[in-house]
Amino acid sequence: MNDKLISKCIHIAEKALLIFIAFATLCATIQEIIELIKIQRVLLADLLLLFIYTEVLGMVAAFYRSNRIPVTLPLFIAITALSRMIILQGKEPSDLLYEAGAIVLVALACLIIRTRPPEKYRNKIDD
């Protein structure tokens, strides 16, 4: 009985946090769009930020539907965030190489995850 109550409380808290994250992301998106309209200029960094917000909303929606987050979604967000960071900050060439290397590593992780055998086959391989 106690375990069920704890599990239910955690599930409710999880759903509430998802709703809060979605709401906060929508608010941040609206604020960014208002700022873009105010300054009447859109830069690549602004578009990447809006794309990050869209990916966060997609991740919340995916988790809300299936109670699972596809591992690649946070990795895509990381790639976009690293790209935005490269664009926003003037850096030394060595720093740019490190950041580009980080993007390549995250992209390779996405590739490895996407090409792994499906779950139903993985269990047969492990046996």
Structure notes:
The two termini are 36 Å apart. Helix content is 86%, strand content 0%. With 127 residues, the chain is mainly α. The protein has one domain. It is flat. It contains 5 helices and no strands. The chain has helices at residues 2-39, 44-66, 72-88, 93-115, 119-126.
What percent strand?
Answer: under 5%
Oligomer: single chain
How large, in whole angstroms, is the Cα Rg?
A: 19 Å
How many H/I helical runs?
A: 5
Could you say which structural class the secondary elements and strand pairing correspond to? mainly alpha
Task: List low-pLDDT spans.
Answer: none
Q: What level of helicity do the residues show? A: over 70%
What is the overall silhouette? flat
How would you characterize the largest beta sheet? none
The count of DSSP E runs of length 2 or more, i.e. the number of strands, is 0
Name the average pLDDT: 88
The figure for the number of domains is 1
Distance between the termini: 36 Å
Question: Which short descriptors sum up this protein?
Answer:
127 residues, 86% helix, 0% strand, mainly alpha, single chain
